[in-house]
Amino acid sequence: MINFDLRNKKAIVTGAASGIGLATATRLARCGASVAMNDLGTNEKLGAEVARLKGEGLEVYSAPGDVSQPESAAQIVSSALNLLGGLDYLINNAGAPGTKLPIPVDDFDALTPAFWKKMLDVNLLSAFWTTKAARSALVERHGSVVNTVSASAFACNGSSTAYACAKAGLVHLTRHLAKALAPRVRVNGIAPGMVNSPWECSFGDQEEYARTAVPLQRVGQPDEYAELIAFLAAGSPYITGQIVVADGGVQLLE
């Protein structure tokens, strides 16, 4: 684990009520950063986690709302900037599979127009809306952006075709944003593989599956992905426009 000194640094983390987002917000805050944690306003877990981290003496704030829509995303970023007084790191982690079980790749009927729109709004466009709203603040402080993509962006798997395509779009959006915001702001992404999330665990023992499906024979942990995000955000001044795949070696098998 790299010990970053992030005192006086400011961060926004979307999708921060659980999983990789919560681990990332916690990691940044424990390194000294002030962190605005975002998740849907209907997610009661966000308030509980913010209170828990405040109880540890960490400087965290609640910034609830839906980042998948341009107007609310702009309001959330504006509110977070008022709380933080600036911005160094924008972590676009918000995302959702939108389905209780994976949709088979040949199930065309399940991929309705409404489902496609939801997947694109949540998993692709949200990162654009928040980055657009935060760009002036990021430019001012030579900040950085890290997007949570998915290993499914590079393969025919994942929760659905729509989800995988949205995440593939996020790969290219990351590169376009890196070009658009250089040299003042760096933009990178991570592509996580398996993770012990409530969604993945709902349809089977992921550790048992990983022992045969993943070369490293285990599932990735949120803290491991958070460490990678922290590195790209704060510890890699000459890296931009890159997607780091962290899938335990699954791509070696494809």
Concise account of the structure shown:
The protein is of the alpha/beta class and 254 residues long. 44% of the residues lie in helices and 12% in strands.
Based on the model shown, name its key terms.
254 residues; alpha/beta; seven-stranded parallel sheet; single chain; Rossmann fold; 8 helices
The unreliable regions are none
Percent helix range: 40-55%
Radius of gyration, in Å, reads 17 Å
Helix count equals 8
Q: Beta-strand level of the residues, as a percent range? A: 5-15%
What is the fold-level CATH name, i.e. the topology? Rossmann fold
Describe the biggest sheet?
7 strands, parallel
Strand order of the largest sheet: 3-2-1-4-5-6-7
Mass-distribution shape: globular
Task: Please describe what this structure looks like.
The chain has 254 residues and is an alpha/beta fold. It has a single domain (10-253), classed as Rossmann fold (3-Layer(aba) Sandwich). The chain contains 8 helices and 7 strands. The chain has helices at residues 19-30, 44-55, 70-84, 113-140, 161-181, 198-201, 206-213, 222-234; strands spanning 10-13, 34-37, 60-62, 89-92, 144-148, 186-192, 243-246. The protein has a 7-stranded parallel sheet, with helices on both faces. Helix 1 (19-30) packs across helix 8, helix 3 (70-84) runs parallel beside helix 4 (113-140) and helix 4 packs parallel to helix 5 (161-181). The longest helix has 28 residues, at 113-140. It is globular and about 50 Å long. The two termini are 30 Å apart. The relative contact order is 0.15. The model has no long low-confidence stretch (mean pLDDT 95).
